[in-house]
Amino acid sequence: MPVFKRVNKDFFKKWAPEMAYVLGFFAADGYITLNKRSAHFWCIQITDKLLLEAIKEAVGSEHAISVRKRSGNENTIYRLQIGSKEMCDDLRHLGMKERKTKSMTIPHVPEKYFSHFVRGYFDGDGNVWVGRVKKRNGASNLAIITMFTSCSFEFLERLHLRLAKSDVKGGSIYKAKQGYARLQLSVNDSLKLYDLMYNQPASSIGSLFLERKKRVFEKYILLRG
């Protein structure tokens, strides 16, 4: 008799901080697939095992996390795969369809949970850099730059508009020759983004964030004094 792994199948039906974060992360690093028997699965595949374990706990899953080691200096990949047509249909309803890479758009995330959605997407397809930028006179300034990347230009346009409503009003989007688009924020908006993503009640964030990315923001804040 088959053993069915437990999971909260209502997870994507009701808005909550955890749901918004996982949805944002899924938008960056998740996908829906059907096997040869037309069974529906949704999957997240990343190199950060601790974060994937936190996502697994958030969705109430007992599914095993699979491990794929790679050669050379490449990081090990961890995958959470959950078979549930109901949850896949909920994700489709929210705009997360198969082959979503170039056609994805932002779901109608309630303002109350938007910061968690942004943090989830940023942890999946965002980046933050701190360093010194040279000026024309030869001097240099300490700077922080944050970026969101997507193959869907429309997704970044809508994200840009939603961020502006949360006082992250600057930034620009450009298309790269490789086929992706990037939304880039400079110093002031990067700090506002930090406030939006992390200055939330600790109980609502829990362990659903990448510590290494959060530390880069805090490194800049510490160095700037």
Structural features:
225 residues, alpha+beta, Endonuclease I-creI, 2 domains, four-stranded antiparallel sheet, 8 helices
Describe the structure.
The chain has 225 residues and is of the alpha+beta class. The protein folds into two domains: 17-100, Homing endonucleases (Endonuclease I-creI, Roll), CATH 3.10.28; 116-224, Endonuclease I-creI, CATH 3.10.28.10. The protein is 40% helix and 23% strand. A four-stranded antiparallel beta sheet has the order 1-2-4-3. A four-stranded antiparallel beta sheet has the order 5-6-8-7. Strand 1 (30-34) and strand 2 (40-46) form a beta hairpin. Helix 1 (17-29) runs parallel beside helix 4 (111-125). The chain is globular.
Question: In which order are the strands of the major sheet placed?
Answer: 1-2-4-3
> Oligomeric form of this entry?
single chain
Task: Please work out how many helical segments DSSP would assign.
Answer: 8
Strand fraction equals: 15-25%
Poorly predicted spans:
none
Q: Can you tell me the CATH topology of the largest domain?
A: Endonuclease I-creI
Work out the helicity level: 40-55%
Q: Which word captures the global form?
A: globular
How many domain units? 2
Mean pLDDT: 91
Helix/strand-derived class?
alpha+beta
CATH class of the largest domain equals Alpha Beta
CATH architecture of the largest domain: Roll
Distance between the termini: 62 Å
- Main sheet overview: 4 strands, antiparallel
The helix/strand series, from N terminus to C terminus, equals HEEHEEHHEEHEEHHH
According to DSSP, the number of beta strands is 8
The whole-angstrom Rg is 18 Å
